């Protein structure tokens, strides 16, 4: 995910390009990326699952993402396991937080 650290004309131009259809279509063609730029056709996605996801995202009236969407896969798996554990044993918060911290540190 591109981020602008300093608001300059060059930064704005770069972000405009990265958000544009041409750059988005190049990333999508590599596989593993999804574009919600409506100017990028879903047919640009290399596989049928990605095409379906793109179509659902671009046709949705509301899309919400959670923190898990930007977590590394190992952290996501550990987070879901931790949530299930907390439902079963609410008093296990300190141990769960320790494990999550260890998994997150190892993932980065």
Per-chain topology:
Layout: H1 9-19, H2 21-30, H3 48-59, H4 73-88, H5 93-107
Helix pairs in contact: 4-5
Tell me the number of structural domains. Answer: 2
Average pLDDT over all residues: 89
Q: What kind of sheet is the major sheet?
A: none
How large is the radius of gyration? 18 Å
Q: Using DSSP, what is the number of strands?
A: 0
SS content category: mainly alpha
Order of helices and strands: HHHHH
Q: Summarize the amount of helix as a percent range.
A: 55-70%
Contiguous runs where pLDDT drops below 50 for at least 5 residues: none
User: Total helix count?
Assistant: 5
Basic shape: extended
Give the percentage of residues in beta strands.
under 5%
Please tell me about this protein's structure.
59% of the residues lie in helices and 0% in strands. The protein has two domains: 9-59, no CATH class; 67-107, no CATH class. It is built from five helices and no strands. The longest helix is centred in the last third of the chain and has 16 residues, at 73-88. The chain has helices spanning 9-19, 21-30, 48-59, 73-88, 93-107. The protein is mostly helical and 108 residues long. The model has no long low-confidence stretch (mean pLDDT 89). Helix 4 (73-88) runs antiparallel to helix 5.
């Amino acid at each position: 995910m591109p981020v602008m650290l300093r608001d300059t004309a060059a930064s704005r131009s770069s972000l405009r390009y990265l958000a544009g259809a041409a750059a988005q279509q190049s990333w999508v063609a590599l596989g593993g990326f999804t574009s919600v730029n409506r100017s990028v056709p879903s047919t640009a996605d290399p596989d049928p699952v990605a095409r379906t996801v793109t179509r659902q995202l671009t046709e949705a009236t509301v899309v919400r993402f959670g923190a898990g969407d930007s977590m590394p896969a190992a952290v996501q798996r550990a987070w879901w396991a931790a949530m299930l554990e907390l439902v079963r044993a609410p008093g296990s918060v300190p141990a769960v937080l320790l494990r999550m911290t260890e998994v997150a540190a190892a993932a980065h």
